[in-house]
Amino acid sequence: MSWTIKLEDIDDLARGSALLGTGGGGDPYIGGLLAKEALRRHGDVTVVSLDEVPDDAVIACISMLGAPTVMVEKLPSLDEIMSPVQELSEHYGRPITHLMCIEVGGVNSTIPIAAAAAMNLPLLDADGMGRAFPELQMVLPTLYGVSASPLAYADEKGNIGVLRTINNAWGERIIRVAAVEMGCSIMLSAFQMNGVMARKALVPDSLTLCAALGRSIVEARVAKTDPVDGLVETLGGRSLFGGKVVDVERATTAGFARGRATIIEGDSTFTLSFQNEHLMAELNGVVLTTTPDLIMVLDFESGEPITTEGLRYGQRVRVISAPADERWHSPAAIEMVGPRYFGYDTEPTRFDGSVRAGVPIADSDGIA
Amino acid sequence: MSWTIKLEDIDDLARGSALLGTGGGGDPYIGGLLAKEALRRHGDVTVVSLDEVPDDAVIACISMLGAPTVMVEKLPSLDEIMSPVQELSEHYGRPITHLMCIEVGGVNSTIPIAAAAAMNLPLLDADGMGRAFPELQMVLPTLYGVSASPLAYADEKGNIGVLRTINNAWGERIIRVAAVEMGCSIMLSAFQMNGVMARKALVPDSLTLCAALGRSIVEARVAKTDPVDGLVETLGGRSLFGGKVVDVERATTAGFARGRATIIEGDSTFTLSFQNEHLMAELNGVVLTTTPDLIMVLDFESGEPITTEGLRYGQRVRVISAPADERWHSPAAIEMVGPRYFGYDTEPTRFDGSVRAGVPIADSDGIA
């Protein structure tokens, strides 16, 4: 069922996206500004569910790639957001008919809204992850054999490129160093696919979910009920910890914002390890949850999601976990986004603390 | 006047190119292998002088970009050499009609020969420098406002890209990090221009000169005369030093082969500083010659040119200097390729030790 994103929906969408962005995917305030500006100038955006998208649609993502820490100082213009999509269309020789979000995040869910408004294109109610991950190849379409190439990218200075790589991991390698050189943040359009593949490879209804989550946080605040309880229930997750941030180490290296935050409450010490996104939660040295399941940090009182770059000494926060799309637990996915890929020597631990392995994506559905 | 490059010309051409490559531009043995393979399989190459090239010709360079040290282990295939030219043609929407050498060097003069043979295209008797320089923007066409963009690049794995940048220095920045990530050596096709611009901006007759220089080294050897004396005379240069290499420091960093060589004879100490190419020659701490003039190192007896990566402890060598194309002494050129750009705190010192400044390129001819 199609629906319309209006100006007044943006705050909820950005808030809910930032939550599912698990600390990454960019600042929802920045993302919201961009989307609102686009909607004010170009009108509402039509959102199309996966079951409505035509089989022969030409779909591509538009997203920011780089360290989201940088984006706060380098707000992209609508021209910068549109140019890689236009470049991709020209390179592909057919116009893009639908835009999609490659991931869920405060910026990477709202940039496609801005682009859809400015280009008058429908936006899919779906995304490539159901959360955010830091590297280009880390999307469910990779597991279905969808190539990120040709990928088009642009910076705010007017530099623009198209790249075709032999696999998505090579796309990540080359585009990452280019992004670092171009100022640590670029706009990227890639993962061109048709409607048939989109129905297989994407996570459905993610914009609808983001809007609902964002709205529920505000509604709970108005109703003076606990905003976090509702989120945990909606997501089928659990509460991991609540306490005060006493240390945040971080460094923007190799195009990523990497680091570790320490949160305490009484005698308990809780640590969050992140690389753009929160990837591992430990309580007193015991692993509670790791990537690919979702680890989300919220303001203790207001329930506002806090991005990894928004974490500050002294904040009182709550941390919750929730299950990722089950396909992220398939063996090929764990190899790509499991804790060991990121250098954490631990089993993939689910949102509920279990270590149950996932099953391969069926041959008929995907390649892994 | 057009002429033909045949199999038996390659050794002379590669040797002469390596000489004018001033230590950079790649190993003439490797370059020669590539060109010979192409000529054996595809036949001779027609070389066209600048005064013959049609005004509306579509000319582009094909070259290796990266650390030439790496190329010894990573010999490109003909497919890899052709693919960026084909990509550039497609992106530009018109077929490339003529190939050119962007610089003179053991590999970067012979790769265009290989490409011209394999693609059955004429090759210009010209190049963009009259020597070799390490960075993309360091070509005379930059001084005439010719954009390197669109630039197409490819590696041996099959990764391929097209990039358009706001100026040639940005092209260098982005393509350099991509090249490092892609294995420190890529093939590049860029600097598309027409015949009118080629006549203005390129150095004429450089392949003819390379062939003559290469031939004279061999002829002198056969005639048992001094090969170096003849080169100095032909180039209008001077002999700087002769002695034994006693130290070579080098590192392949940020995609370049940087270093310093020390050569002694009696009480005299001569040092060569290089970054892919020889950029400064000093005798007992006194600067004799710097970039942009040519500093060339040859084997003491045979007169074979020695590249910076070929320099070894114990070699007996002779070092000569020669004037660069006078446009390299214009103020804008000195800013781009003078010794201070490379971090050597000294005046640009000409081949004969003088420090006479050059004049701006006339407005009617160029932009600088």
TrEMBL record, chains A, B:
Gene3D superfamilies xrefs: CV3147-like (2.40.390.10), CV3147-like domain (3.40.1610.10)
Q: What is this protein called?
A: DUF917 family protein
Q: Which SUPFAM superfamilies match?
A: CV3147-like
Task: Specify the S-Me-THD-like C-terminal domain's residue ranges.
Answer: 167-347
Source species, domain of life: Bacteria
Q: Specify the S-Me-THD N-terminal domain's residue ranges.
A: 8-164
Alphabetized Pfam families for the sequence: S-Me-THD_C, S-Me-THD_N
**InterPro entries attached here?**
S-Me-THD-like_C, S-Me-THD_C_sf, S-Me-THD_N, S-Me-THD_N_sf
- The scientific name of the source species is Leucobacter exalbidus
